[in-house]
UniProtKB/TrEMBL annotation:
Cellular location(s): Peroxisome
Protein name per UniProt: Peroxisomal trans-2-enoyl-CoA reductase
Record-annotated Ketoreductase domain positions: 14-154
Summary of subunit composition and partner proteins: Interacts with PEX5, probably required to target it into peroxisomes.
Reactions catalysed: (2E)-octenoyl-CoA + NADPH + H(+) = octanoyl-CoA + NADP(+); (2E)-dodecenoyl-CoA + NADPH + H(+) = dodecanoyl-CoA + NADP(+); (2E)-hexenoyl-CoA + NADPH + H(+) = hexanoyl-CoA + NADP(+); (2E)-decenoyl-CoA + NADPH + H(+) = decanoyl-CoA + NADP(+)
Segments for region (Disordered): 276-299
MF (Gene Ontology): trans-2-enoyl-CoA reductase (NADPH) activity
Main location: other
InterPro entries in the cross-refs: KR_dom, NAD(P)-bd_dom_sf, Peroxisomal_t2-enoyl-CoA_red, SDR_fam
Native organism: Labedaea rhizosphaerae
EC number in record: 1.3.1.38
Organism classification: Bacteria, Bacillati, Actinomycetota, Actinomycetes, Pseudonocardiales
PANTHER family: PEROXISOMAL TRANS-2-ENOYL-COA REDUCTASE (PTHR24317)
Task of the protein: Participates in chain elongation of fatty acids. Catalyzes the reduction of trans-2-enoyl-CoAs of varying chain lengths from 6:1 to 16:1, having maximum activity with 10:1 CoA. Has no 2,4-dienoyl-CoA reductase activity.
Keywords: Fatty acid biosynthesis, Fatty acid metabolism, Lipid biosynthesis, Lipid metabolism, NADP, Oxidoreductase, Peroxisome, Phosphoprotein
Length: 299
């Protein structure tokens, strides 16, 4: 059980922007931020979705209609937010687009719709906050929600994997460039946490349910939870560890490390299976020893 490891005032005095905060994980994390004392701002493209999300959350929540691919609109909205409410203390780059498709079938617009939302959207938002923090000599914390595909790549979601890898590179690069300004950049890479919109894009039919959206090949035997993601995100957005920067933290129950090129599947073997395996390999060793003459084992 995850519980509530943090004090309710962990984020008191923080003002945090969540892009794509009207649905799914962004909206769920927003609730945890508010419940830990933060003022929260939600961006997305659909006014009704944002309004409904804001109304459902306790505490101080503001919304703006922003397409993060539009750099000029991002800067304008960031200026409005700063002028009306004051400086942000943190940004959560959560907005994303994605769908499964054979890469050879993608049009240029399809590639741009996904990669642009992730890569350009995260850059524009980070840049809009970062240049204001630097000008005002204020610290800041940027957290981006990525995927483990930044290390492994993934077939059939190539524009997303490319966009997320670019934001992983931005995280490492700006962590160094902006460290002297007190601005930190980190990222989280969750394994599957089912949400309505994402599953319509990633597992839309009865035949599309493979590893990435399933629990059966995850060593911990289950999906992640919103509470786990929210706790990790809050830790990174809080003042708990100001020395932490430039890191992308996988939170996937060991999924990425249990690839088909490893022996992870042996978790299915019973005690009898293991006894049989040992007997077979010991027999092979004995046969080998018999051919070694006087040469024994390790000394
Ligand atoms: C499981 C563990 C890891 C999970 C990691 C999760 C990653 C995620 O990011 S899930 C996030 C899912 N959420 C979303 O995608 C929300 C936002 N999505 C959208 O806005 C749409 O679904 C969008 C991605 C299609 C983009 O919409 P929009 O910007 O309005 O673009 P268009 O509808 O005009 O489409 C642009 C272009 O893309 C082509 N296209 C759309 N869908 C598909 C598809 N399924 N397959 C192939 N191509 C597609 C569309 O035809 C357009 O191209 P042109 O025809 O050349 O104009
Ligand atoms: N769910 C999962 O298992 C995992 C998710 N992730 C990541 O977590 C994040 C949230 O995903 P999830 O909640 O599942 O998916 P959702 O589809 O629910 O969230 C995506 C959000 O981004 C917004 N968005 C999309 N395009 C734009 C745009 N151009 N400008 C502004 N906002 C935009 C959408 O709102 P609107 O359409 O109204 O603009 C939506 O609210 C994403 O970054 C995803 O890659 C990572 C690993 C696993």
């Amino acid at each position: 059980m995850t519980g509530r490891p943090f004090a309710p005032d962990l984020l008191a005095g923080k003002r945090i922007l969540i892009t794509g905060g009207g649905t799914g994980l962004g909206r769920a994390v927003a609730r945890h931020l508010v419940e830990h004392g933060a003022q929260v701002h939600l961006w997305g493209r659909r006014p009704a979705v944002l309004d409904e999300a804001a109304a459902s959350l306790p505490g101080s929540v503001h919304t703006q209609v922003v397409d993060v691919r539009d750099g000029e609109r991002v800067d304008e909205a960031m200026g409005e937010l700063w002028d009306e409410h004051g400086p942000l203390t943190g940004v959560l780059n959560n907005a994303a687009a994605n769908f499964i498709a054979p890469t050879e079938s993608l049009s240029p617009r399809a590639f741009d719709a996904v990669s642009g939302t992730v890569m350009k959207g995260s850059f524009h938002t980070t840049h809009g906050a970062g240049r204001r923090w630097i000008a005002a000599r204020l610290p800041g914390s940027v957290v981006s929600t990525l995927t483990t595909w930044v290390w492994t790549g993934s077939a059939y979601v190539v524009p997303s994997a490319m966009g997320k890898a670019a934001v992983h590179a931005m995280t490492m690069s700006l962590a160094v460039e902006w460290a002297r300004h007190g601005i930190r950049l980190n990222a989280v890479a969750p394994g599957p946490i089912p949400t309505e919109y994402a599953w319509q894009m990633l597992n839309p039919t009865g035949k599309s349910g493979v590893g990435a959206t399933q629990a059966d090949q995850i060593p911990m035997g289950r999906m992640g939870t919103v509470e786990e993601l929210a706790n990790l995100t809050m830790f990174l957005l809080s003042d708990a560890c100001p020395y932490l920067t430039g890191q992308t933290i996988a939170m996937d129950g060991g999924q990425m490390l249990a690839g088909p090129g490893t022996f992870a599947g042996l978790a299915e073997m019973t005690d009898q299976d293991w006894a049989d395996a040992r007997a077979k390999s010991e027999a092979a060793t004995a046969a080998s020893k018999a051919q070694r003459g006087g040469l024994g084992g390790p000394h």
